[in-house]
């Protein structure tokens, strides 16, 4: 069908509908480039001739300014679940200066360019500057004849942001009453989210964008937990869910906005976040009590299917994970992984726990005595960063975890509360402090001098983080244990707590970007062995 062209002054160009041939060409080039556009979700493709072309052909100028703006703005759109791609006829080396965005610039050959808006000049064929939106309510929107590339790019970003917030408001049941303030806050992503933002839509809302399967599983669990607690007269454990927006393989949960201050900014005595404050336990008590209500009200005499994985098998799976192997190779080129895992470790206290291989061998033998015979619904990731407060001061948790490492199970959400508390323990020491060092850019100071590649011993005695249990940490551990008893032998409960903390720590060893430096990786690794050694001592 032929669509008459129309000039859209607010988009600084001429608007028409993308033809089937143009759509197919864009998909084909991006597929070939290895950056296929998601089906059903919103994508925007910005095309430009090439850097420096405008110096020779004035009608093609403006690429550099447009792409610099796009580089800065792509993060904003990505947090809204909008895929941003770029297209050009220039060779890849010409846009290396764009950093991470350069990987999303797909090259159109002369034959490819013939199928989309282009121009032929004496030195060859170039893409014209155009923008294509695919998916969502503006599927097929094509803007050509762009008169101001910078103003156009800003306008497209504003347009897609407004569309996105309006769609979310409707899915949340608040109509389209989105205020002009747009996105009011952005939050750090978790492992399973593409973006988390706040906005006003009659009520303050938070939108969490992620894979549809993950969001659907999480929202179903959140609804089950909140409904059960509220039926008993308790506050909901999680932010109240207002709705879910689906698009292809992607979804967005829309929930109540709570106070953004996480408890890792409340419970520590030091800015480095390694030492618990005297007021830590009182600050945590409302959250611990609410978790206790969840545990007791959903308990049943059945071993969680995930128990053996968390207390034994995952230690083997982690070191075989491609993310772990890739991170290790990146941080320690030339080191042999098997030798590192087999080496004893020297800690700053002078203690010398056995290496990872020996510890996992011990766990294979000891884990049968650790496995619980009952379970309940659990949060799954009780990290201090996932613990917040509502405006009235009541406790609230975010980002539950029901699946580990992609391993589905029949009793989703059903687990051992000691693993919840173990995750909280690992957050108290050392993970909040290590992540703070990464955020501050000081993680290299965690281990001022990297050790030599180990040959039987990995010397980490230079680590500056604490490997001791002070009074406040000891009282914190006792409070966690008191919340788990009294039907299990205390030494078993304590060992379960320490093995769980080691497990939570081991999972971080897969994430190069999160840990940032080899010093952070070695610190996490050292704490894995420290907690396992404490568990083995309890069961000796």
List the SSEs and their pairings:
Layout (H helix, E strand, L loop, with lengths): L5 E3 L4 E5 L2 H14 L9 E6 L4 H4 L6 H17 L3 E6 L16 E3 L2 H4 L4 E4 L2 E4 L2 E5 L6 E4 L4 H23 L11 E5 L7 E6 L3 E8 H20 L9 E7 L2 E7 L23 H19 L8 H14 L1 H10 L5 H6 L1 E3 L9 H11 L9 E2 L9 E3 L5 E3 L16 E2 L1 H24 L16 E3 L11 H12 L7 H19 L3 H4 L2 H22 L1
Parallel strand pairs: 3-4, 4-5, 15-20
Antiparallel strand pairs: 1-2, 2-9, 3-8, 6-7, 8-9, 10-11, 11-12, 12-14, 13-14, 16-19, 17-18
What's the rounded overall pLDDT mean?
Answer: 91
Shape: globular
Largest sheet: 7 strands, mixed
- Count of strand segments: 20
Distance N to C terminus: 78 Å
Structural class: alpha+beta
Our Rg estimate from Cα atoms comes to 26 Å
Name the beta content range: 15-25%
Q: Please tally the helical runs, counting DSSP H or I stretches of 4 or more residues.
A: 16
Return residue spans where pLDDT drops below 50 for at least 5 consecutive residues.
Answer: 1-7, 54-61
Identify the strand order in the major beta sheet.
1-2-9-8-3-4-5
Q: Give the helix level as a range of percent.
A: 40-55%
Structural descriptors:
single chain; 540 residues; alpha+beta; 7-stranded mixed beta sheet; 5-stranded antiparallel beta sheet; 41% helix; 16% strand; disordered N terminus; Kinase-like_dom_sf
